[in-house]
Design brief:
Number of domains: 1
Helix content: 25-40%
Number of helices: 4
Oligomer: single chain
Number of strands: 4
CATH superfamily: GTP cyclohydrolase I, C-terminal domain/NADPH-dependent 7-cyano-7-deazaguanine reductase, N-terminal domain
CATH class: Alpha Beta
CATH topology: GTP Cyclohydrolase I, domain 2
Structural class: alpha+beta
Shape: elongated
Strand content: 35-45%
CATH architecture: 2-Layer Sandwich
Radius of gyration: 16 Å
Length: 118
């Protein structure tokens, strides 16, 4: 079993509870780690024998473009999509960060981390 991590995926999206966040949008970052059996790919050097991180990235990007009010909801949707689209993935962990959230002070980010297992 191997662990693959895609770090620092950057998105401009429209997630949040405030109308301004949904209209104007803001910057988000996502980090995703997943486990899968890569033993065949290790021997064959064939991308078809593993879960392509390009395909996984595209699945995350698709979920990021669908607005959610809560980071919790967004992170769960990402995990559900990953597990549904990639049966070879045994577990996944996602961290979603809203950069510079409008909380009335200078804050770098607010994040949630969720994990899922088969």
């Amino acid at each position: 079993m191997a662990t693959i991590t895609i770090s620092g995926m950057s998105f401009y999206a429209h997630h949040g509870c405030f109308a301004e966040e949904q209209t104007i949008g803001t910057h988000f970052r996502a980090d995703l780690t997943y486990t899968t059996d890569t033993s065949r790919a290790e021997l064959t050097d064939d991308i078809a024998q593993t879960v392509s991180y390009l395909d996984v990235y595209q699945a995350v990007a698709q979920q990021m473009q669908q607005p959610s009010h809560l980071l919790e909801h967004l992170a769960r949707r990402i995990l559900n999509a990953i597990l549904a689209q990639f049966p070879a993935i045994q577990s996944a962990e996602v961290k979603v960060s809203k950069l510079a959230p409008p909380l009335g002070g200078q804050i770098e980010s607010v994040s949630i981390t969720l994990e899922a297992h088969r």
